[in-house]
Specification:
The protein has one domain. Helices cover 29% and strands 23% of the residues. It has 6 helices and 10 strands. It is globular and about 50 Å long. Bound molecules: iron/sulfur cluster. The site of iron/sulfur cluster has 10 residues, from loops.
């Protein structure tokens, strides 16, 4: 897939986890991903899912915590500003910011993620970015 932007992951260390917190949303997970996360923590998958996942429209999403009005992924450590299951994070997190929805329009991404910048090589096709 071609994307009209480039991503510098070295910006992540200083950004404060903007993609793991904010106004709320969904971190979709498959059952296999939940099983892998549970195994990494030495937990039973069913108990793990009950504690950390929720069912939304027939799918599974990670739970959120709301702190001072801000929605945080249940695995985001706001003090250390990092993901506490990083090695076992779901595909949605692994593939960020290269999501299909940002192929056509990446304006939101450019506002939110300091690691994203326009790919000047593809600038002519980046009319919505
Ligand atoms: S699983 Fe980790 S990387 Fe994904 S949203 Fe939660 S804290 Fe962020």
């Amino acid at each position: 897939m071609n994307f009209p932007f480039q991503f510098d992951s070295t910006a992540c260390a200083a950004c404060g986890g903007r993609c793991c917190r904010g106004t709320g949303g969904y971190v979709w997970v498959s059952w296999a991903e939940l099983e892998a996360m549970a195994a990494a923590r030495g937990m039973n998958a069913g108990l793990f899912a009950k504690q950390y996942a929720r069912r939304v429209q027939g799918r599974l999403s990670l739970q959120e915590r709301v702190v001072n009005g801000e929605h945080l992924c249940c695995f985001f450590d706001r003090i250390a500003c990092c993901c506490t299951i990083y090695d076992n994070r779901p595909e949605q997190c692994r593939t960020f910011p290269f999501w299909e929805r940002y192929q056509e329009d990446c304006r939101e991404l450019l506002r939110e993620c300091p690691g994203v910048s326009l790919d000047l090589l593809h600038k002519s096709s980046a009319s919505n970015c």
